[in-house]
Amino acid sequence: MNRNVKALVASRVIRSFSFGYLSFTIPLYLKSIGFNPALIGLYFMINSISSSLLVLAAGFLGDLYGRRDTLIAMSSLFTASMLIYSITTNKLAIFITSILGTTGGGGPGGGAGGGPVTPLQTSLLADNTSPVERTKVYSITTASSTASSLTGAATSYLLISMGLGDLFLFKLSTVLSLVSLLVLLMVRRDRGRVNVNSISQILPRRSSSSVTRIAIAGSFGSLGLGMVTPLLPLWFKLYLHATELDINMIYLASYLASMVSTLLADRVERIMGRVKAISMLRSISVGLFIVMAIIPSLIVDSVLYVVRVALYMVTIPMRQSLSMEVIASEERARGLSITGLARRLPYSIGSFTAGVMMNASLFTLSMITGGLVSMLDPLLYYMFFRSFRGEDR
Description:
Layout: H1 3-32, H2 37-65, H3 67-87, H4 91-96, H5 118-127, H6 131-161, H7 166-184, H8 208-226, H9 232-239, H10 244-263, H11 265-272, H12 274-294, H13 298-313, H14 316-326, H15 332-359, H16 363-374, H17 376-385
Helix pairs in contact: 1-6, 1-7, 1-10, 2-3, 2-15, 3-5, 3-7, 5-15, 6-10, 6-14, 8-15, 8-16, 8-17, 10-13, 11-12, 12-13, 12-16, 12-17, 15-16
């Protein structure tokens, strides 16, 4: 890996440490300061909508003016969010962080993605790797960041056990996000990829067909996942009576499973074929949500959740690699921003729906419905890309 790739991976690893505990700490923290499930769902809906708009802006600005500088600007929004969480418990101030679009998501195993930095980081990694090594690089990147999240979750377990509360974790996230920003300065500065003289030139026209297909499939998957993943910690706490430490351990195990599975992505791709692996493993993964809803047992659901995370995460490097091959190099950030928008808007709707259903004690129905809707993602993905020439390599 060259210097740019190392810096990008290092920055993501540092930032991912915080995501190891924020994915379950934030919904539980919001509940502790007086937010009801419906309001928490609204928080994540606004967060997802804002993230959608920021993702769209990030991809287009990255291709127009430079991906590295845009990545730094978008990454700073997470720093701002964590700073607000660190210095106040005011409900209005906390709720306003949803507008910054960087505090959503449900840990490993599905969601709308990693916020507005995703299209930029993925594109920059593609710019600095060859197609042959790309899946492996994405696999290593995802595994490394997951290992960091695993360490973050384990560390938070110890800190919570020692009596240090959520505010300490938010302050730690603020410091780490600042360090992550400094590391990004090591990435070579790039220029814009396009010269724009009209609105029509802004759109990724060469890759429009591929972008549309990815967007359609992903929108169904994210709508379903949005009905489950953001509020899953509340499912474990309110419905299965898990403690905060229990939830911490469940997510800790899921990060470990995620780290191992992503390292196997390149091998699985060679054995099964990229599109077949993505379709089959994701189908099983989202189907396990339905099984979890039918069998409301803390032990059973904990195991099933860890298994579904492993199956889902192994497909992410493959899906990133395929996207980079079917989207023209000069349109990558814009293409990914459009597909990101198509995932995040439905995800926001699903998140709010889940909050309303949970408030009405109908989260079991939300999980089953979410699982069924998410099943359309791998099905459509296979229909759209089964003839991809890189399927068997």
